[in-house]
């Protein structure tokens, strides 16, 4: 496919999409557009794009495809600034934004001027931002939701072909269905995670030692609280009605638990059922695991708290040529062992590392 694609926003999503297009269509040209010149330089250096430009309208007339991978409200602003009379009549415009109703509303004025617009949203990502976190495999096996304008239906196949190497599963939904479903399954969880971390922050001021006790449960439910605040502000402000309703449902649920607790033992069964129902549902949800960036493999090692132990572990791994991605001490207190978190790229590396550390030391290794 010898096409010119402009990717606007060279961050996690734009970078990952550009990588996948390069992989599937090496003969195509990718022009990267970003406000941030450093992102452009990094993308050029990584070979993700062929050219960099700060101003979209300076290059838009060359484009066969424009893909917006900017925060939602930046995307609507940039769409509004396009100059349709200067664009190719065959141009296909799409986006990657986490909400769809406002963007689809904005696209009507483009459609009125003959520009094809297909809303898009890959349902995979990370709390990490920026082009350095991008990965062509990010969307593998994930759903990629599409909300085409009626007049754009015939271009959906072309877009799927362009994005073939994302290895995503494309699904057409209405903008309303989209915002309802992502509101429940993505936006509300991000609000809850951020709220929980903020509540913890206030608590830690009272009990400073508590910060050292944040273990697996807290880590699992709050990872997404590290996501980019600018991106999430735009998401919330473009899905207000859905989120207000879901927050009310959430508050009703929390109030119910609070009242059960107020009455104590008499509500044992209700409390049990609350957790039992959640376990049943969670255990049967087909949660997307493969392809996302945190598809790294963590090995946890209980280590005695003395200096030199990290060097011991790395020496054991180096001896067997096992490469690691990251190494972090999660906990060090005088009275207990520390935990060393060693991250590997593959399950095989992790298993080999576990065997070699267990053979060469008496450290206890485990996965979570
Ligand atoms: N992060 C995720 O998990 C995820 C997943 C799916 C979809 N999305 C959506 O994808 C979009 C991009 O998210 P991301 O995670 O890649 O963010 P990011 O912060 O990693 O990248 C955004 C990039 O856009 C650039 N940018 C911002 N405003 C711009 C403008 N006016 N003109 C040109 N460049 C501009 C920034 O400099 C940055 O490089 C958002 O709409 C988000 O809702 C995010
Ligand atoms: O894995 C994460 O960190 C994400 O938050 C990814 C996530 C999600 O909520 O699942 C976040 C926003 C997107 O619009 C799509 C995916």
From TrEMBL:
Report the EC number(s), separated by commas if there are several: 1.3.1.12
Q: Name one GO molecular function term.
A: prephenate dehydrogenase (NAD+) activity
Keywords annotated in UniProt: Amino-acid biosynthesis, Aromatic amino acid biosynthesis, NAD, Oxidoreductase, Tyrosine biosynthesis
Q: Tell me which residues make up the Prephenate/arogenate dehydrogenase domain.
A: 2-293
Pfam families in the cross-refs: PDH_C, PDH_N
Q: Which GO terms describe its biological process?
A: tyrosine biosynthetic process
Going by the record, the broad EC class of this enzyme is oxidoreductase
Pathway field: Amino-acid biosynthesis; L-tyrosine biosynthesis; (4-hydroxyphenyl)pyruvate from prephenate (NAD(+) route): step 1/1
Reactions listed under catalytic activity: prephenate + NAD(+) = 3-(4-hydroxyphenyl)pyruvate + CO2 + NADH
Query: Does this entry carry the keyword Kinase?
Result: no
Q: Which PANTHER family match?
A: PREPHENATE DEHYDROGENASE (PTHR21363), PREPHENATE DEHYDROGENASE [NADP(+)] (PTHR21363:SF0)
Q: What is this protein called?
A: Prephenate dehydrogenase
